[in-house]
Amino acid sequence: MSLDQVSQSILYIIIILVFAKVFGELAERIGQPPVLGELVAGVILGASVLGWIRADRTAILAPESSVLVFLAELGVIILLFEVGLESDLEEFLRVGWSAMLVAVIGVAGPFALGYYSSILLGLSYTSAIFMGAALTATSVGITARTLGDLGQIRTSAAKIILGAAVIDDVIGLIILAVVGSLVAGNTVSFGEVGKVVLLAVAFLAGGIAIGIFLAPHMLGLAKKLRTRGMLTISAFLFCLTLSYLAHELGLAAIVGAFAAGLILARTEDLVHIQQRIKPIADIFVPIFFVMLGVSVNLSVLNPLNPEARSNLAFIGILVLVAVVMKVVAGLGVLKRGVSRLVVGVGMIPRGEVGLIFASIGLTRNIITPAEYAAIIAVVIITTFITPPLLKGVLSRENA
Amino acid sequence: MSLDQVSQSILYIIIILVFAKVFGELAERIGQPPVLGELVAGVILGASVLGWIRADRTAILAPESSVLVFLAELGVIILLFEVGLESDLEEFLRVGWSAMLVAVIGVAGPFALGYYSSILLGLSYTSAIFMGAALTATSVGITARTLGDLGQIRTSAAKIILGAAVIDDVIGLIILAVVGSLVAGNTVSFGEVGKVVLLAVAFLAGGIAIGIFLAPHMLGLAKKLRTRGMLTISAFLFCLTLSYLAHELGLAAIVGAFAAGLILARTEDLVHIQQRIKPIADIFVPIFFVMLGVSVNLSVLNPLNPEARSNLAFIGILVLVAVVMKVVAGLGVLKRGVSRLVVGVGMIPRGEVGLIFASIGLTRNIITPAEYAAIIAVVIITTFITPPLLKGVLSRENA
Description:
The structure is a homodimer. Chain A is built from 16 helices and no strands.
């Protein structure tokens, strides 16, 4: 990477942050969460409108674009780390059964209904399994940010959503392993699947238990060191390390970042850590949401495009399944006084995991380009409707 | 860039920061500036020892390495921004003539002596000009960081060094333009050179004047906005924008970052900006110095390698010229009570600009690989000797 390319990357970052702030502010002024403005900013910068910035994750990118994709991922990792720092592990354990039930219903519902709708629409058995699987996993970044924007991140509903999203991610591992075996024509080895899941659960439970024991010692050591910035670097390294391990175990990196936040939230240095992480989050988190918008290709929804038009009915059905079945999942909330509707709406966004299924399916010729486009459309629509929907149901609840 | 590559980049960052802190702390414990430890950490991680991390700026890199190179540049930009924030423009103007004289002597001396030594050693006229030019420009990052490590960044000596380094960079533009024309076989167009220099000076003087006028309005506007992190983002964007413009005008990006810091240092929000930039600097600045170490290829200095051995005398002479003539430049200090030795030693490090001359010379067959290696060796040696030398002369002065 030459210095000219570095300079070009800097220009991209300037443009992204200026657009993020202008559109975030506009969203705020019309009564919407700023994150919606950032998403729109990304769509405008991306291929659908201006085409200034590219973000295709699978293609070989120019180094400048790789840098942007990386900074975006760093942004969502820091977002979930911050959310973890603001959370209390005990409160999570208290809503554990609600989160578990919401997660299970929220996976089983969209899977079953996605599968049957696809079969009814004439898809093959394997394609239908893929479509169902692609609709299962919640992408928690949007909801976490929206709840943060609205000052609702410390509520019980937020705890249930975040807890359910973590459990979702573990269930996603199972589905990925099972569907992966089916696609490869192998029988499903329950031993293998069990091993993957056991590792993930051991990482989460064990990692948090060990982390709670070790973190005060780590921070104590850091304070004995004489060079500057030790607390910031220790906290940041702790977050990156758990994110890395989570990814290597097949979980989402943000699950690790969230766990890191939960652990450090129990240390006496919490306030200082939050102060130091906040400016880093201020800069990198918007990059994630703008780049999420950049990755949107609106042509799959263009009714003037005949190919897209013939697909719109299918997309409509999938979106309906995706939205309704997650809202239904909100009924899994056992705790009194928590709005089932808020929790259900908070579970609506789909993202990464759906896209992973979509691209595996496409590259192995299990699903058609039209079916691939439909999954992309579900991700786009669920991402964009959640911030206003969540804002709407929250103000109705609080009214 | 796939999520696996993102995860790999995160692993690299974890390793870099852990090594930076461990070796920085070791350096501190043996009475050396932490930056020296970070440089050594980089050498150990790089091709010379472990080979875990690559940083070649000219080659086509894996996306993970591009990310590291970018984060390193972002680190040095933030470092100089921070230094600017801690500085006072009036004090700079007060030491302006000293800085000017130090810069001019510090460019003319190494150029003349580098040129004549090369001629005496049998190099051609053009090669000798290149060798001389490669020895001129000061790389201020090392010195700024070392002075910061030692708590000396607010001294008059520091002001003169920083001011001289900025002037150095403008003179570097002239040399690059002149040498570039000579190499291309053109006569030197003084009009062209004048235009380049005028633009750079106009950017620095005009940019700072306009910036001082506009910055309070910008920050005032930012405070009226309702979305979070506005002050952090405004300051960060201001720094990136001036860095980008400086680079596009042919100056170093860090000159722009430094100017941005100088401007914001005059606003009423200075303390808040410093608080917010510090954690970002804590994380990204060490990445720059570790990556500087990573880019070192010690084989050019290996006496067991016959090719390197035959070059050692030449390298020795060049290093001597490079060090002595910058120390001599310290005599340019007019202001009383400022140590000429500290200023001279602070001007020793060579970096980016020397490497640019070296690679232009090599790719156009003006200098041989051995001469190229000699320039690299000068950059390495001057980089590594400066932190301990500066610490040494400072403790002697203050004794």
